[in-house]
Amino acid sequence: MNAVKYLAIALLLALLAGCASYPISDQFRQQARQITLDQVRADPEGTRGKIVIWGGRIINVVNESKGSSIYILCLPYREDEQPIPYAPSPGRFIATSTGFLDPEMFPHGSLITVAGQLDGVRTEPLQHMQYPYPVLNIEETHIWHWEPEQYVYPYYGYYGPDWDWGWGGWGW
């Protein structure tokens, strides 16, 4: 009887794992190559046109007459393609589009996952130096939204989004 129960649980877990959804479509996930920023910097022409999925934190959005650019601090990502917020970064890259990208839809500091074709390296000023940004032409993007954190402070209890600043919690 126990074997049947364990088999049913294993089957249920396998079914749930198979239902995992990814923000980037299967079409791009199947074509994507594991290419790093350093590999693109070392061989911009050899990596041009390859499909990659990169993630990171949005630094800036720039719109010009010829298109738009999202400047991104690259971060490693988890199995579900969500960037790991405080992981060490291998550098920065630029995700480009021929159309307008509304900065309100791509807010500064948000986590993003981008799929697209590599398009060489663009060198631009960054503070007091010239920085080689790998360029990715956007095919798909996903902005990760997170819930506000809930804080528990010692001696004071819970101070989170639902905390009542008045006497309502005391029933008065």
Spatial extent as radius of gyration? 22 Å
Order of helical and strand elements: HHHHEEEEEEE
Beta-strand segment tally? 7
Please estimate the helix content: 10-25%
Choose one word for the global shape.
globular
Spatial strand sequence of the major β-sheet: 1-2-3-5-4
Strand content: 35-45%
Largest sheet: 5 strands, mixed, barrel
How many helical stretches? 4
Q: How does the helix and strand content classify structurally?
A: alpha+beta
Name the poorly predicted regions: none
Report, as a whole number of angstroms, the end-to-end distance.
55 Å
**Mean pLDDT value:** 83
Written overview of the protein:
The protein is α+β, with helices and mostly antiparallel strands and 172 residues long. Helices cover 19% and strands 40% of the residues. The protein has four helices and seven strands. The strands form two sheets. Strands 1-2-3-5-4 form a five-stranded mixed beta barrel. Strands 6-7 form a two-stranded antiparallel sheet. The protein is globular and about 65 Å long. The relative contact order is 0.16. The model has no long low-confidence stretch (mean pLDDT 83).
